[in-house]
TrEMBL record:
The lineage of its organism: Archaea, Methanobacteriati, Methanobacteriota, Stenosarchaea group, Methanomicrobia. Functions by promoting the formation of the first peptide bond. Belongs to the eIF-5A family. Gene3D superfamilies: 2.30.30.30, Nucleic acid-binding proteins (2.40.50.140). The modification Hypusine is found at K35. Keywords: Cytoplasm, Hypusine, Initiation factor, Protein biosynthesis. It is found in: Cytoplasm. GO terms for molecular function: translation initiation factor activity. HAMAP family: eIF_5A. Residues 68-127 form the Translation initiation factor 5A C-terminal domain. Its main location: cytoplasm. Coiled coil: none annotated. InterPro entries: IF5A-like (IPR001884), IF5A-like_N (IPR048670), IF5A_C (IPR020189), NA-bd_OB-fold (IPR012340), Rib_uL2_dom2 (IPR014722), Trans_elong_IF5A_hypusine_site (IPR019769), Transl_elong_IF5A_arc (IPR022847), Translation_prot_SH3-like_sf (IPR008991). This is Translation initiation factor 5A.
Length: 127
């Protein structure tokens, strides 16, 4: 579900867990080491599920958790008011994925779509 890496290994566009919420990294700023301290990194990220901005500042040698994100595809079976039911293309299981009003207008029954599976939660990937 998650693994630990050093802050210096993070890159923009990858994922990180901040305040227990999986986020996508938007920017990383690294400072030089000072006379009495180690180099620091400021990571600015946006939550995958809630869209909330989060940031964290810590030494570049500190460990941080990174979620394991699985990108899967499935076929839309039914479209409800707040969720869509998908059949996974690899193991043919059915999954209920929450959708927004914007996603709902783009979906069609029988159409193939991709979705993210992160820390036991799912999200429609409408790129």
């Amino acid at each position: 579900m998650k693994e630990q890496v050093e802050t210096r290994e993070l890159k923009e566009g990858r994922y990180v867990i901040i305040d227990g919420e999986p986020c996508i990294i938007k920017s990383i700023a690294k400072s030089k080491p000072g006379k009495h301290g180690a180099a620091k990194a400021r990571v600015d990220a946006v939550g995958i599920f809630d869209g909330q901005k989060r940031s964290i500042v810590q030494p570049v040698t500190a460990k941080i958790y990174v979620p394991i994100v699985e990108r899967k595809s499935g076929q839309v079976l039914t479209i409800g008011d707040t969720s869509a039911q998908l059949m996974d293309n690899s193991d043919y299981s059915t999954i209920d994925v929450p959708i927004t009003e914007e996603d709902r207008s783009k979906l069609e029954e029988g159409k193939e779509v991709s979705y993210l599976l992160v820390m036991g939660r799912t999200k429609m990937d409408m790129r």
